[in-house]
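Continuing the batch. This is chain 6 of the set; chains 1 through 5 are on the previous pages. Same settings as before, nothing changed between runs. Recording input and output for traceability.
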Amino acid sequence: MAKDFNFDDVQDQHTNSEIEGTADTNVSDNIVNNNQSTINQNNAKTYNVVITDHNAPMVILFGPPSCGKTMTLVRLTRYLSGTYDFMPDQAFRNSTDTEFNELCKNFNAAVGADKAADGTKYIDFMLLRVNERRNGRTICQFVESPGEFLFNPQNPTAQFPAYLHQIIASNNRKIWLIFLEPGMSQEDRFAYVKKIQDLRSVIDSRDRIIFVENKVDLPATSSFVLSPTNINMGGLFRYVDGLYPQLFKSFTVKGIFGSKARYDFTAFQTGTYVEGQDANGKPYKSFQAGHDSHPRRLWEIIYKRIRG
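Output for chain 6:
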């Protein structure tokens, strides 16, 4: 069985060697089409949100455009649907925001959509309460927002938006899912490390960090996947550590008895995307969910951190 890295009790084992042979696809070329976003790009930096539940922990998805945050949330929602209800919080954004109300209304349909594009365009910028089905208790809240608001490779030094600072300032305990993937140019990776370090400087030291190496089925990392339930997590970690120099050390605390890493690291794959055409001949990609071991592995880490 694959063993995920829980670094609370392990020694620092980093390498500074640069890994060769990595895919060099520039994420800048994959920026989401602004016309598909329901958020006005010009207002994003000053957009205000409302957090009504200050007790349930918040799980914030953090990553660049096209890193797979939204589809990861879709996959988790599908996997957990028998035990939990994912409920959009309509108070999160202005109640007069008709586009947001439309997002909330179409959430369940979006999660169940076979067309990947249809599934993501309705989960654009929202807070989802995760309620236990048996008693209705909210155990956590997922926050998803467009990647270009968090790290835009075309403007890597841009300030974090106002809504992110509102979330950071809230009294809720927080778990940050920070998405990584090999399909970034070296320049973008280095800039992303700096952006994550900027995030570390403004969040609470007690916040929990979970690094998610997404799209682990792609050629650059697929050699570490022996099977969906058997991943060479140690080898994968060392590979990713070489791609993102100094990233993991930024979240490692040195003490009298050695270094202790204050984060978790895991791998993820949402599924496969099969190209096809609809009845009108319009091309689309059909989403086929991958093995349940991936959302199970990620949820086990999130749930552990939710509980403290």
